[in-house]
Design brief:
462 residues; alpha+beta; Heat Shock Protein 90; five-stranded mixed beta sheet; two-stranded antiparallel sheet; 12 helices; elongated
Amino acid sequence: MARGRAGLSPLLGARARLRWVHLTLGGALLMPYFLLTEVAVGVLAGGSNARDSLPLSLAAYAAALPLVAVTGLFRLVRPMSVAAARALCGVPGERFAEGPARSWAARGRASAWWTLHLGVGALVSGMSLAVPPMAGVLLALPFVSALRELPVGLGPFDVQAHPYVAPLLGTALLAGLVLCAAGAGTLLARLAPVLLGPTAADRLAAAEERAADLAVRNRLARELHDAVGHALSAVTLQASAARRVLDSDPDFVREALAAIEDTTRRTVGELDAVLGLLREGDGAGAGGGGLPAAPTLAADLDGLLARSRASGIPITARQDPGPAGDWGRLPAIASREAYRIVQEGLSNALRHGTGPVDLRILVRVRGGQGEPGGQGGQGERGGQGESGGQGESGGYEELEITMTNDPAAAAAAAAPGARTTGGRGLQGAAERAALLGGQVEAGPHEGRWRLRAVLPLGEGVR
């Protein structure tokens, strides 16, 4: 019994029945086209009723298919067809294309499917309506004498003369209907991924969308790492320094506590913005327009240095904005990424330095081919420093960031077992620079630990 059921499953199983429903749906969708062409064929045939003539009905059916093909070119036909085929044809959903058809090649394939579905579905629907009543009459013919008076026949065979053979004919008709429906359903199921599957353009668009989404998520991950990592390093050192001088230098303690408060408040704001985008899912679009406003070199570098100095770390900063004399004229993206690179350099120095850390920072705009130029006397903004130099180069195309630790910190970083290749932070800084066509170098240099980044600016500061 179980083997018998398994053998009939392709013909009468749940999947076969769903495909039969799918075909019937196609027949129902063809009806508006058929009714329109039926009127036209009747008029051309001299006012005859096409329903009373099988040849005229077939002509109306044939005339309806070109109309079906034309309407199948509409973009929304594909998602509608995909939804029906995914639910009723038993084809894995990942084999179908998503969304409306974008290219004409995709529209043509969707139109071919639409025409095939409606055309074959109409034939199977017509058979499903006509065959069961006829088969029922044939099956009951030997047992109901009144039925023998009806003009029932099947081709050249006269069922009135041989009434007890009629049930065999009725069974054969039902079996033929089942076979036709199962065969048509299987055919459509095999063609569905071919005609409704993604085209090369669809695959490329999907790959670009995934790449854009991944790029935005990586950007969010870098923002989280840089903001939270630096905040934790700075707050830890500030709290440690305040604890050491709690009794002897209350003014420094108050300054450190104020820096801790400011650092945590700013970081919580950045953290909330990024987590909000992650919760929204699609809020981080491919263009990255939903990213939170990031701090910039022009507006926030002084505050970053001040908060870092509050931990008691000597930091010497020299800044040379070039002949323009204004960091605000930097391209916005370069200013954002430069700030994060400086922040990561500070985090590494504060996290990995041993003993007093003398951190020197040079941020300058320089010519792409020559030595740096700039207006003298810019000096350090908000701390100890040196005056900027003045050069003759007229092409100011790069932003250079150089950060060096004192020899003790460099020796500790280069000691056996120490991490010299950088972690996620330095990798993130390199990725930030690479997005702008620049580069980051980090490692021992002349007895010091040096982080050097070069960011192309193009025409941004001219």
